[in-house]
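Got a spare moment? Tell me how you read both lines of this record:
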Amino acid sequence: MNTDELGKRILYFEDDPEIAHLTTTTLTGHGYEVCHMEAFPEQGLSALRDKLAQKPDLVILDVQLPGIDGYAICEQLRQDYLNTDVPILFTSGLMQDDDILRAYEVGADDYLIKPLRLKELLLKAEHLLRQYESQRQASDQFDSAMKMAFDAMKTSSELGDILRFVEATHRVTNNAALAELIFSALASFGVQGAAYIELDEQVYFRDDGRHVSLELESMREARDKGRIYSWKQFTFFNYQHFSVLIRNMPIDDEDRYGVLKDQLCLLLNGVDARIDAILLERNNERKQKVAKEVAQAIANLVMKMEQDKSALSGRFESTILNLENNLATELIQFSLLEEEERSLMTHVGTAIKDATSIFEESLRKESEYKAVMQQLLNKLGSENENPCLKK
């Protein structure tokens, strides 16, 4: 006896008590579970289902039975009760060609001529059960292969959705548009969620437009629990500038749950990259604005310096000119006696003093301009840093 056959369930129809007893004893002695019935129950398949907790792995069916014969029973079992690949073995005192064709027509797999040879019965039963098991395994493998194929096609389609989503994020520039795009993508994956985004300001969004305070608080609490945090059917995806909550993860389907979690990570990584890009763009715009302001301030300062320099130069020239005029006047009035010489020297001293004062003021102004220039340069340097992108 093949140990693989142990515990297999056999439904056995036979109205002859002696044959039924001998056959049942032999089958159970070889490890089979046998449910013997003298005839098809009057209550039909419902009574059969009540009697058998599980469907049989093999049916042994006598053709000549009281009430409904074996052909009709076989046809009814095939249509409304058995799996299509469960074997049915007919037993009969005589199987002519017409009987064999009719048995095949109603769904039988093999037959034995009475009186039964028990060794042949066991061999037939083992053969049919091995064949049934092989078919079942092949069917399972086929179903598994088809599931993998459909899953692969579905995954391929969803990866396409992710790529289209990432492309669409390039056109997003604010919180509301980003949330709308996220919810549209989640819907294509068959899940619902909420988002907490800190792009322009801290804003909470939900795909159905509602505001659920406890949900928002849960999202805030979950932000320090790692990149991915799961609790029952809820899964939180946390990033530096946003969080997304999925409310209906398929926790009963382990394979789908794992694939979906990975795909949502890919999708939300695209959101994270887009937010970083937006912040970088805004920082560059801010730096460009500051650079323009600094350039304009420097230009104004240079112009002011030129104006001040021109004014100082004019004052210096005026002082020297006054000195020359005073000297000329004195030279006309005096014959450069000692007294006149002292007067002349006084005018010269005054002129030198004024010129020195102008020169010192020029130095002071230049120092002030240098200090202002340094402040502008320091400001420009500090603005070149990007505090928004610091992790």
Q: What stands out?
A: The beta strands are 9-13, 33-37, 58-62, 88-92, 110-113, 193-197, 203-206, 228-231, 234-238, 242-246. The radius of gyration is 50 Å.
